[in-house]
């Protein structure tokens, strides 16, 4: 199950979107999605707000991954003129938190977590509609799979760049094991340090 829906307790599958390189952002930017910038400050605020709503840690990596997906879905929605009503957004938002009314209400008490959940819900509805479904198909895996493939195809023309400190955007989430050259050099330095710290035969 995806990072987003595992964290929010939903059972629908998250879209798998194409990734971009781990370069191309400027200081203060966590990612750029088709020309739309996601700031580090926005990521931090989202992480804190969603953690409070969920009652457990929702890391910056999770937050950025979902923020990127939300922007991608919004751009695809606009390009394809896909209507999503307020009622559909509310239904998808409740589904995204596993139908837990108490958790849903916690998200509503803070503007950041509320906007984030609504964006998540909208992206799910866009996926469902691309799969030929309606709000009644939020749990329909066949519709979601079809929508996922359509979203992946639609996203191919949208560039995604992620700041090296977070990793790289791969298959719809942040892969923190892939980073920029500084991190790779750091790994090499670590390997050299570990090699020099190995005890000589007969020591220890």
Give an overview in words.
This protein is mainly alpha-helical and 204 residues long. The protein has one domain (3-196). It has helices spanning 3-8, 40-54, 60-80, 86-96, 101-108, 111-130, 141-154, 181-196; strands spanning 29-33, 36-39, 160-162, 168-170, 173-175. It has a 3-stranded antiparallel beta sheet with strand order 2-1-3. A two-stranded antiparallel ribbon has the order 4-5. Strand 4 (168-170) and strand 5 (173-175) form a beta hairpin. Helix 2 packs across helix 3, helix 4 packs across helix 6 and helix 6 crosses helix 7 (141-154). The longest helix has 21 residues, at 60-80. The radius of gyration is 19 Å and the shape is globular.
Give the total of domains: 1
Count of extended strands = 5
Largest sheet: 3 strands, antiparallel
Strand order of the largest sheet: 2-1-3
Q: Determine the mean pLDDT.
A: 77
Output the structural class.
Answer: mainly alpha
Rough outline: globular
Number of helices: 8
Distance between the terminal alpha carbons, to the nearest Å? Answer: 46 Å
Helical content stands at 40-55%
User: Which regions contain 5 or more consecutive residues with pLDDT less than 50?
Assistant: 1-23, 179-204
Measured by DSSP, the beta-strand proportion falls in 5-15%
What is the H/E order? Answer: HEEHHHHHHEEEH
Q: Radius of gyration, rounded?
A: 19 Å
């Amino acid at each position: 199950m995806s990072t987003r829906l595992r964290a929010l307790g939903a059972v629908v599958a998250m879209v798998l979107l194409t990734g971009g390189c781990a370069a191309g952002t400027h200081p203060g930017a966590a990612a750029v999605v088709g020309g739309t910038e996601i700031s580090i400050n926005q990521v931090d605020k989202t992480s804190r707000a969603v953690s409070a709503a969920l009652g457990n840690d929702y890391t910056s990596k999770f937050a950025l991954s979902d923020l990127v997906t939300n922007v991608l879905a919004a751009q695809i929605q606009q390009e394809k003129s896909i209507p999503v009503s307020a009622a559909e957004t509310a239904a998808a938002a409740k589904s995204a938190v596993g139908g837990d009314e108490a958790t849903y209400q916690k998200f509503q008490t803070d503007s950041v977590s509320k906007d984030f959940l609504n964006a998540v819900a909208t992206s799910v509805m866009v996926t469902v509609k691309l799969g030929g479904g309606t709000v009644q198909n939020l749990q329909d895996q066949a519709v979601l799979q079809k929508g996922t493939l359509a979203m992946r195809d639609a996203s191919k023309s949208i560039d995604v760049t992620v700041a090296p400190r977070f990793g790289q955007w791969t298959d719809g989430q942040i892969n923190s094991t892939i980073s920029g050259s500084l991190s790779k050099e750091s790994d090499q330095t670590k390997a050299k340090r570990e090699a020099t710290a190995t005890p000589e035969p007969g020591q220890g």
